[in-house]
Amino acid sequence: AIGHVAGTPVIARTDLWPMLSYLDANFTLAVWTSAKLRTARLLIQMLFPPDIGQRLLFVWGQNKCDAKTVNVNDAAAGSADEDDDNGGKKDDDVSDNAVK
Fold it and tell me: For the purposes of burial, counting CB atoms within 10 Å of the CB of 48, is it exposed (0-12), middle (13-18) or buried (19 or more)?
């Protein structure tokens, strides 16, 4: 383990830095997690190369996540996706021009 966060050992994949370097070279990176913001920042500090961690567009924690209760049986049947963020419309009913 390279450290501990919230009492849990943090074990980095051996290919993490090369993967993050590739992503950083080709995309704008951000972190959005259901973890608390403090935990997210600690993990970024431990796991990201410092220059990449400083360039993140944003770091959002659980305060930016909305919880949604999903019935496991409904999700398995595919009905959980039908009423997400589209004002009650199914994804098929939302035009490509909805976001401008």
Answer: buried
- Bridge partners of residue 4, in order along the sequence: 9
pTM, rounded to two decimals: 0.63
d(CA 56, CA 46): 14
pLDDT tens figures, 8-50:
999 999 999 999 999 999 999 999 999 999 999 999 999 999 9
Our CA angle for 56, 57, 63, nearest 5°, is 100
Q: Which two tokens stand for residue 43?
A: 């993990």
C-beta of residue 53 within 8 angstroms of C-beta of residue 17: no
Query: What is the residue whose two structure tokens read 């939302």?
Result: 94
